[in-house]
């Protein structure tokens, strides 16, 4: 059986990456509008005739597109921020829990996670569920991404002239990812988010430092690492590096998983307790965007979860 897929916004960075992952697959047929992609009626027809639609649009445009879908059989994946905290939409991070995976598989509407939240939630959500990190604990997340995460304008800026080698942003502490990270981590206190962009194209590191002695029972890094390992046992695209491997490392590059849908978690720290640095490594255009969308597509259509992904 061949499923028809329409990517609304296929000319954008995420849309192009998704198309590249899908166009070689024999089990899928892409509906391409070409020069008609800005034609409202052509889009409306595609939005209502595809088996599954992937929206790669700004938030307001994504809301408008969803409003145009009148066919109740059409499944939708939205890659914008518009629906990530909407309870009517399934949050598309299947590894966070078996219940979440089951909801994605049954859903007609799935919101793709953000790249930064993907790394953060993978690190913190299992610890909150286990009571290791209390829901009201003040949690900080520091992260750096390649400039491709900023879209076409930022890509053009960094690839022309002499851009900054490193740029901190989100300095008002009101970044649009904060509600998403706070809600899906199970936290009651807003996350303090400190993002940055580096002068390289893609790949990211997301870090959540913890004062272990400030947590209930002063858990050791073995306890933290053990909970993460348990949470992702058997996961196809999420792995937890061993403590021995992590202890032997002298550095970590954000480009280490580029071109893949993989997510790798590290627990750095003092085995005797005290402090820990939880670090997630992923491709912001892979597991942080297009790879995640393809993974969700596979689940929603009842296909092999890893089809078209590495």
Helical stretch tally? 10
Spatial arrangement of strands, main beta sheet: 8-9-7-10-13-12-11
CATH architectural name of the largest domain: 2-Layer Sandwich
In the CATH hierarchy, the third-tier topology of the largest domain is known as Dihydrodipicolinate Reductase, domain 2
Structural class: alpha/beta
* Count of all domains: 2
The separation of the N and C termini measures 23 Å
Radius of gyration: 19 Å
Helix content: 25-40%
Strand segment count: 13
Description:
The protein is α/β, with parallel strands linked by helices. It folds into two domains: 3-112 and 288-300, NAD(P)-binding Rossmann-like Domain (Rossmann fold), CATH 3.40.50; 115-284, Dihydrodipicolinate Reductase, domain 2, CATH 3.30.360. It is built from ten helices and 13 strands. A seven-stranded mixed β-sheet has the order 8-9-7-10-13-12-11. A six-stranded parallel β-sheet has the order 2-1-3-4-6-5, sandwiched between helices. Helix 1 packs across helix 10 and helix 5 (115-129) runs parallel beside helix 7. The two termini are 23 Å apart.
Task: Outline the secondary-structure elements.
Layout: E1 3-8, H1 13-22, E2 28-31, H2 40-49, E3 52-55, H3 59-68, E4 75-78, E5 90-91, H4 98-106, E6 109-111, H5 115-129, E7 140-146, H6 151-159, E8 166-168, H7 178-185, E9 192-198, E10 204-211, H8 221-231, E11 238-240, H9 243-247, E12 263-269, E13 275-282, H10 286-300
Parallel strand pairs: 1-2, 1-3, 3-4, 4-6, 5-6, 7-9, 11-12
Antiparallel strand pairs: 7-10, 8-9, 10-13, 12-13
Helix pairs in contact: 1-10, 5-7, 5-8
